[in-house]
Design a protein that fits this description.
There is one protein chain. This protein has a single domain, classed as Rhopdopsin 7-helix transmembrane proteins (Up-down Bundle), CATH 1.20.1070.10. It is about 75% helix and about 0% strand. It is a multi-pass membrane protein. This is G-protein coupled receptors family 1 profile domain-containing protein.
C-alpha cells in the first residue's frame, strides 16, 4: 500500500483488480433482483410487529444501496481509471462500509428480537411498530456517523483530478494511539459485540427447544425463531468474521505497527478475499428472508401465480381477438 514502509515485502496484489471486478459482476444482477423483490414483498408484512419485518426492510435497503454502487466499482476495476470525481469515489467507498455495518447491526437486531419475543411472548404482544422504526432511525444515524472515518482515512492525496479509487486509495498518516483507539472501537462495537449477541441468541433459542413442558404451538414458533437466528449467524460468520479478523491485522500492518514481512504478505494477500466475502452478504440476506419467513414464501408464491395468471389471460385475449 502507498503509505506502508514494508516496500521490500512484495505481496502479489496484481490479481486483486480482476478478483474485485469478477466478484462484483457476479453479485450485481442477483443482488439487484433479489433485494428489489425482497423490498417489494416485505412491505406487504410491514404491519406484523412481532416478525422483525421493519429490520428486514432496512437490511434489504442497505444491501440495495451497496448493490447500486457496484457498476461504478466494476467500471474502475476493469478500466483501472476513475473519471467520476472525488465525491463519487468517496461516496461509493462509504456505502461499502455503511452496508457492511448496517447489515451487521440489523442481523443482530433480528436475532435478538426473535429470541426475546419467543422467550417472552407477552413482550411481543405489547411491542409497537413505532419502536422498531425508532430503533432503525437511531441505528442509521449511529452507523452513518461511525463509518465516516473510513473514507476520511482513505482519502490521502485524492482530488477531483485523481484517476485512482477504492483499493488504490492512499491512507492518511494518523498517530499510533489514535489508530489503536479507532481500531479497537470498530472491532468491538462492529464485530465482537454483535458476535456475542448473535451467538448467545442462537444458543439460548436452541436450548429452549429442549424444554419438554412447552406447548406444541410454542415449539413451532421457537423452531421458526431458531431457523431465523441460525440464518443470521450463518451470514454473519461467512461474510463478516473473516473480514474483521483480517482487517485488524491489515490496519496494524499499514500503520507500521506490525513490521513482520511474513505477516505483511499473508494479510495483504488475504484482505481482497475477505472484502469479497463481505460483499456477498447482499445476495445471502434475501435467501435468509425466503427460507426463514413462511409469510415471505407464501407471498412470493402468491405474487408469482398472479403474474403468471395475468400473462396467460393477456395471451388468451390476444389470441381470441385474432
Amino acid at each position: 500500500m502507498p503509505n506502508s514502509s514494508l516496500t521490500y515485502c512484495n505481496s502479489t496484489l496484481q490479481y486483486r483488480h480482476t478478483l474485485y471486478a469478477v466478484t462484483y459482476t457476479i453479485i450485481f444482477i442477483p443482488g439487484l433482483i433479489a433485494n428489489s423483490i425482497a423490498l417489494w414483498l416485505l412491505r406487504s408484512f410491514i404491519s406484523k410487529k412481532n416478525k422483525a419485518i421493519i429490520f428486514m426492510i432496512n437490511l434489504a435497503f442497505a444491501d440495495l444501496s451497496h448493490v447500486l454502487s457496484l457498476p461504478l466499482r466494476i467500471y474502475y476495476y476493469i478500466n483501472l481509471t476513475w473519471p467520476f470525481g472525488k465525491f463519487l469515489c468517496l461516496l461509493c467507498f462509504y456505502l461499502k462500509y455503511l452496508n457492511m455495518y448496517a447489515s451487521i447491526m440489523f442481523l443482530t437486531l433480528i436475532s435478538v428480537q426473535r429470541y426475546v419475543f419467543t422467550a417472552n411472548p407477552f413482550k411481543a404482544k405489547g411491542w409497537k411498530r413505532r419502536y422498531d422504526v425508532g430503533i432503525c432511525i437511531a441505528l442509521w444515524i449511529i452507523v452513518g456517523a461511525a463509518c465516516l472515518p473510513f473514507p476520511i482515512y482513505r482519502s490521502s492525496g485524492l482530488n477531483n483530478s485523481s484517476t485512482s479509487c477504492f483499493a488504490d486509495l492512499g491512507m492518511k498518516q494518523i498517530d499510533t494511539r489514535t489508530i489503536i483507539i479507532l481500531l479497537v472501537g470498530a472491532e468491538f462495537s462492529g464485530f465482537l459485540l454483535p458476535l456475542i449477541l448473535i451467538t448467545y441468541c442462537t444458543l439460548k433459542t436452541r436450548t429452549q427447544l429442549t424444554n419438554d413442558s412447552l406447548r406444541c404451538e410454542h415449539l413451532k414458533e421457537k423452531h421458526k425463531a431458531l431457523r431465523m437466528v441460525i440464518a443470521c449467524a450463518s451470514v454473519f460468520f461467512i461474510c463478516f468474521t473473516p473480514y474483521h479478523i483480517i482487517f485488524f491485522f491489515y490496519i496494524m500492518v499499514n500503520s507500521n505497527i506490525i513490521h513482520s514481512c511474513a505477516v505483511h504478505k499473508v494479510i495483504m494477500d488475504l484482505h481482497p478475499f475477505s472484502l469479497c466475502l463481505a460483499s456477498i452478504n447482499c445476495c445471502l440476506n434475501p435467501i435468509l428472508y425466503y427460507f426463514t419467513a413462511s409469510e415471505f414464501q407464501n407471498e412470493l408464491a402468491r405474487r408469482s401465480t398472479s403474474v403468471v395468471r395475468v400473462r396467460l389471460m393477456s395471451k388468451e385475449s390476444v389470441s381470441s381477438s385474432r
